[in-house]
Design goal:
- It is found in: Cell membrane.
- Keywords: Cell membrane, Membrane, Transmembrane, Transmembrane helix, Transport.
- Belongs to the binding-protein-dependent transport system permease family.
- One of its GO terms (biological process) is transmembrane transport.
- By secondary structure, this protein is mainly alpha-helical.
- The chain folds into 2 domains: 42 residues; 209 residues, MetI-like fold, CATH 1.10.3720.10.
- Helix content is 77%, strand content 0%.
- Helix 3 packs across helix 9, helix 3 runs parallel beside helix 12 and helix 7 packs across helix 8.
- It is globular, with a radius of gyration of 28 Å.
Length: 291
């Protein structure tokens, strides 16, 4: 009889459990460190923009890694030179949001709750409009605006930017409104409310998340628009901040503190609105996914 047959084998279960615990505790830390590293790489351009904006005037290549000597001269110059452009972008963005929602919300309600003949063709046309290159639309609008006298005007920029916000708003809100039970509108009609009253007092309050989502995306597109601003404005009277920043770089190429300060100021409205409306956007995008 061999010795291995007579002696009991050691129990390896505690060792296996210990290895599992070690691997389980090591895994989350590895993912956390990797996530922090990726986030640091993604946020580094934003940090560098803020860092350079708080430095004294000079070249960005010679800027220190930390703003030890804080200077707000770049912000004072940026506000003095670009304050009007910021207000122009704000007016155009808010006007585009209002116009897009005024048109997209009733259209989405009609496509979602009424038997509209040719609704599929309408939706197909909306999708096709999203695929047209912006430069094609801008060139066509320039010719029309030149005849109508809408060049270098805030209403003209609002109309141009709404051409992208309206189709997107219809697609988002139609998906959301289609998930609303028809029994709600039927109950309102039994109580004497017509389709218009049911839309304003029942559909719109329920569709708050979708409205905020469509409005936010329209605002972000309009705020960051460069193509329409470059094509439909030919002087400095009406100039959005994107075009102002583009032309600012050529003027202050040796003073990157002012340029970065302008970039920080132009980023603040979008960042603040995204932080405030984050939970509404997440609910509005996924609201119509499941009925």
């Amino acid at each position: 009889m061999s010795l291995s047959a007579t002696l009991p084998l050691p129990d390896t279960a505690p060792a296996r459990k210990k290895r599992r615990r070690t691997a389980g505790t090591r895994g989350p830390w590895t993912y956390t460190v990797a996530g922090i590293a990726i986030l640091a790489v993604l946020l580094f351009p934003l940090y560098w923009m803020l860092n350079v904006s708080l430095q004294p005037a000079g070249s960005a290549a010679s800027t220190s890694w930390f703003p030890f000597a804080l200077s707000f001269d770049g912000y004072s110059t940026a506000i003095a030179d670009q304050g009007g452009n910021l207000m122009t972008s704000l007016l155009v963005s808010l006007g585009s949001v209002v116009l897009s929602l005024l048109i997209a919300a009733p259209a989405a309600y009609a496509l979602a709750h009424f038997k509209v003949r040719g609704a599929g063709i309408v939706l197909f046309g909306i999708l096709i409009s999203q695929m047209i290159p912006g430069i094609v639309v801008a060139n066509a609008l320039y010719s029309a605006y030149n005849d109508l006298g809408l060049l270098n005007s805030i209403p003209g920029l609002i109309l141009a930017d709404s051409s992208a916000g309206i189709p997107f708003g219809i697609l988002i809100m139609r998906s959301f409104m289609g998930s609303i039970p028809p029994s709600l509108t039927e109950a309102a009609r039994m109580d004497g409310a017509g389709p218009i009253r049911a839309f304003f007092f029942i559909i719109l309050p329920i569709s708050r998340n979708a409205l905020i989502t469509a409005g936010m995306f329209t605002f972000l597109f309009t705020w960051g628009d460069f193509l329409f601003a470059l094509t439909l404005t030919t002087n400095a009277e009406v100039r959005p901040i994107t075009l102002g920043l583009y032309q600012y770089i050529g003027t202050y190429v040796s003073d990157w503190s002012t340029v970065m300060a302008t970039a920080v100021l132009s980023s603040l409205p979008a960042v603040v609105l995204l932080v405030l409306a984050q939970r509404y956007i997440a609910a509005g995008v996924t609201g119509g996914a499941v009925k």
